[in-house]
Amino acid sequence: MFLVSNNFFFSFSDVNVAVRKIANLLKPDKEILQNGDHMIIKTLSTFRNYIMEFDVGKEFEEDLAGVDDRKCMTTVSWDGDKLLCVQKGEKEDRGWTQWIEGDEMHLEIRVCGVKCKQVFKKVQ
């Protein structure tokens, strides 16, 4: 399990202001479970939990209720040793890239040319 070490997350202007303020105070836990090509990524916090379950390389409809209340078609694939997520919907160039370096998990989130980054520290 990884814990976030910085709070530079919700800077997207069309995400509800109250949600952005609360999210910037959070230090969520991130848990990733893998069984072959099937993955479950859990983002857990005292405010809200989000669980993403998918098969690598297969497109699926993702319901982002509670995150930004949008639906999109999502594909997560491997790009070398990084997980690359592409989300097709009402926002252009949307998705994320996630990778591990040592005891840190990096998450770069992008939408409409804006990028945000979180760094999680591994829990011992």
UniProtKB/TrEMBL annotation:
GO molecular function terms noted in the UniProt entry: lipid binding
Domain of life: Eukaryota
InterPro entries per record: Calycin (IPR012674), ILBP (IPR031259)
Family per similarity comment: Belongs to the calycin superfamily. Fatty-acid binding protein (FABP) family.
Protein name: Lipocalin/cytosolic fatty-acid binding domain-containing protein
Species per Swiss-Prot/TrEMBL record: Callipepla squamata (Scaled quail)
